[in-house]
Structure formats: C-alpha cells, structure tokens
Sequence to fold (272 residues):
Amino acid sequence: MGNGDQAVPLTDLQSSLARLLAVNRSPDSHLAGGAALHFEPNSQRYSNDLDYFQDSEERVATAFAADRALLVDSDYEVTIEINQPGYLRATVSKDGASTKIEWAHDSAWRFMPAQQHPHTGYQLHPVDLAINKVLALAGRDEARDFLDVMHAHTDILPLGALCWAAVGKDPGFTPLSLLEMLKRRGKYQPADFSRLHLATNIDLVDLKGRWIGMLDQAATYIGRGDPKEIGCLYYDRQRAAFIAPTPDERGTDDVTPHFGRPGGILPKVTGE
Fold:
C-alpha cells in the first residue's frame, strides 16, 4: 500500500485527509489516537480512523464545522453517523475509498503541549498518546489498545513509567491499581487480531511472553518509586528526553519530575 513519501501506517486516503485537515489544526484541536501514535515507519498496526481531540465540547462543534466545509469543498462525501455534544463521527469517502473520522472532547490536562507536525498540523505529544492508551486499555479490553501499549512500551516509555505518570491524569488510580487492571488484559485469540489491519503477523506466544515481562518490569519500577512523586514523568536534561529513571538517577540534578497541567507544559531545561 503506497503512501507517497510517507512510510507510515495510514491508508492513502487517511494520509491525504490528514494533510488536508492540517490547516485547521491548533493546540486545542489536534490529531490523537491510533493515527497519531502510529505516524511512523516502525509501527505494527494501521489505524482504523482519524481521531481529532478538542479541549471543549464547543470546540468539537467548531472544529467539525470547519473540517466538514473543507472536505466538501475538496469533493469528499461526508456522512455523519453520530452527532452528540462533544462527539461526532463521520464516514468520509472519495473515489471508492472511505475512512472514519471522529471529533471528540478530551480533557485539556496533559503532560506536554500539543506539538506541530509537518503533515498533520498539530497532534498530541507521544508521551500523552502513550498514557492515553494505557488508560484506555485499563478501561476496555481491546486488542488494538493492547498492541498500542506494547508499541508505546518499546518506542516511547516503559510500561512502569507510563503507569506511574498516568495516575496524574486519572487520580482515581494508583500506579499499582492501574497495573492490576492491566494484568487482566492480554488474553486474546487469533480472531481478535484478524479484525485489525496489521503491518506484520502476530505471534501469540511471543506476544504473551513479552507482555508478562512488561508487567513484571512495571511492578519492579513502581515498587521503587517515591510516593511523593506519583503522577509524574521524569525528564533527563542531559538526554533532552523523558526516561524511566533507575533508583540512582532519581533525585540527581539532571533528572527532574515533570507534572502535567491543563494545556501541558514544557519541561524545565535548567536547574531553576
């Protein structure tokens, strides 16, 4: 499946739509979900749709209106399937190809500001995408979320660090209670993955082994954490990246806790 100059897991139609709608994106109306998480060459699954998150119900309505007008002007057919306050879903089609697009209200609370992307305008930062996926998997047993969390563990941050930070967004959890919810996941049949559009074949034995290893590593990481810092990420100034620090790295001058807030915040890059 070709995608022009992008070796990414989007269909040709999704890629075209993401580029077209980029002009309407902003920090409070950004690409999120699977399409944003997998907008890179080494991802395992293709997204079923494009998800745009807005910071308020009112913003959902205005974003949809602007996007719909642009789509219609560009000769796309837009068929609304669900229209309710804070959430709209439509099928967008052209030349025999179609995909779903969703516009939804999500909390403005996040760890990082939405970031500009050359092809999509604005999209949620990878750490926030990963944390959202961890919380999604805790709340629903979906094979697609399971694969996304495994992808996030490998390519963004280890599961333990994601669980530790995720309770900052959902204070109803502790890192351990969130991990206990995740331990209930991972019991899938081949049919659960056959419904997904995957870039590679799934080996259930390998998948299960890696998942058990991830859970064990996460439990160890959480057990070594400082309870006063629950709900944070850790930013390494030397590497200019979020990390899962070892016990020796915590509390050093280079590694600092990073807490979220409405709209997100850039990490401190000095010792001040």
